[in-house]
Amino acid sequence: MAGIGRRLVAAAVVGSAVGAVGADLNRTHVFNPQWMPHARFHSVAGLTSVVGCSLTGLWLLWRPGRPAERALGLKIAALTPVLSYAPFFLALVVPGAAVEDRPGAVPRVAGVPVNILVAGLLTALSAAGYSVARREAGQHG
Fold it and tell me: Among the residues of 2-113, which ranges form H helices?
């Protein structure tokens, strides 16, 4: 039976894919009539990249293998949400970039845009799951 650490990583990986689909495959993003075709192209490319990497991460996380292979699979799976959401934080520092455009506003929690909040929470969940899974496996370092 898988430990809680691997389950936490899996939740962060699934959350990354589901969150990307839910946030982008709608009228405010991919189907936004005000978006330029090239922006729509990049949104779909980014969305499918996150989903593809998430599926790969889940496969690596749960496939059988020797302990070293399972440890590497855990590491790569745990990096999936981090690599999916690190660009959000980098984009915040680009002059002229914004977390939202018309026709809608991103909801906020305590003043923080929900997309940035989710990015941070899924990254933290993945890191916590990785740490717990390593302790469960008796690995240090």
Answer: 4-24, 37-62, 67-91
Q: Is the dihedral of CA 79, 84, 85, 86 positive or negative?
A: positive
Specify the fold of 4-136: Butyryl-CoA Dehydrogenase, subunit A; domain 3 (1.20.140)
Euclidean distance between CA atoms 65 and 57, whole angstroms: 15
Q: For the chain, what are the domain ranges?
A: 4-136
Q: What is the pLDDT of residue 102?
A: 65
Examine the pLDDT at 140 and tell me if it is beyond 90: no
Distant-in-sequence, close-in-space partners of 91: CB < 8 Å, separation ≥ 6 = 97
Helix (H) or strand (E) holding 109: strand 108-109
Average pLDDT of span 94-117: 85
pLDDT at 141: 47
Burial letters 109-126, b for 16+ CB under 10 A, else e: eeeebebbbbbebbbebb
The reported pTM is 0.89
Arithmetic mean of pLDDT, 56-62: 97
